[in-house]
Amino acid sequence: MSNGTTTTSEPVLKYTPLEEIPKELRLVIQIRETLKQAFRSGKLKSIEYRKQQVLQLGYLIQDNVERFQKALAADLGRPVQESNVLEIASMVAEGQHTYKNVAKWAKTERAPFSITFAAMGPAIRKEAKGVVLIISPFNYPVWLSIGPMFGAIAAGNAVVLKPSELSVHTSALFAELFPKYLDNDLFRVVNGAIPETSKLLELQWDHSGGNVGRIVATAAAKHLTPVSLEVSKSPCVIDPKTDMKVAARRIMWGKTSNAGQTCIAPDYVLVPHDAEDKLIEAIKEVYHEFYPDGPLKSNSFSRIISDAHFRRIKGLLDDTKGSIVIGGETDAAQKFIAPTIVKDVTPGDSLMSQELFGPILPIIPVKSVDEAIEIINSGDHPLVIYVFTHDSKFKAHVFDNTQSGAAIANEALLHAGDGAHRGKYSFEMFTHNRATMDSPGWIDLIMGSRYPPYTVRFLPIVVYVQLDEVIAW
Fold it and tell me: pTM higher than 0.90 for the full model?
């Protein structure tokens, strides 16, 4: 089996022509129709073929590690070490894990035992949804493209990947490498911006996912397409008795990795009034440990993806009523925004108006943990809630009285490997659990009374269990 070929030429992002993504079906020239036909051929029903394609996708990353490192550095100013830890190495491991487990995940499961239906062999078949659309964001363009693809392929789906137009170099690299490594009848890359994405969303898909939540959901509703979306603005709740230095180090790493352009990055901090200064002092120490010569000169700090995102983040910072205690420097030419801590922020501040998606950390002083919970619950459910405490009761009080995609104590970012983008969870996201049974003819000797005409003599036997008996059990 070939693991593809590599080149060293600089990738150039070419948008897929709009005429190749039409509203109406037009036979072979249509990307989606080509994939639908290939999917219906049954090629992906073969577990071995799925494994082969998963392996090829793994080779696509493994053979081109250096090229992906350079592409991520060009797109995001991302340090090589950060790209390896956050995306590249984990995707190679993900390929290995998926390859080893495809057959187990895809195996038909027996339904829970029931004496009434046992003879009919009820089971749950694991079936592909069909042709799925993955719209990946710019901030982790490798992980959030390849991770879901492993699951989608393992589940037996054909895939159209629409990578972000902002991560130009990485998206162009995908477009170049996909045809060399993967079955081009089943897996395609479509590059482009809003017009191209809009064209894609006008078509019917068997599953769609991406970070442009409302746009995707609105378009998907027309076709009843299932979607996988996410929400964010993730708070950190600080117990004043916690180890502030540990909390500061982990929060700052979570906030400054990829220049804060992470959906699960700590977005703001809620800390009691009398502990705010202590936390800030700890953060200042960590700041200087991370960037002894300042973040602008550091080779360990990324840049903002685009001029538009730079202006958006800087505008929020310019409008804040809070006090900048460290950082605040910006350089438009380099799309550089220093890690910035802003104290005495209020819930109505500009920095709280939207997900920051940048290296700015607002600190909101609160009277109590209950006020912190009230602030969290006043907005949309966060993607994750971080709690820093050694007190199990404090942790339980926050988690029990809030809702979020994840609830993490004393850490940041590391739980990302456990979500719907990864492993069996990704497989399940792209799988339809199809009920099945096969009822033998002799069952009517037992259940024949279900057929009309109904008579007293042949009333079905129904056993009623009293609630108090169930409770007594």
Answer: no
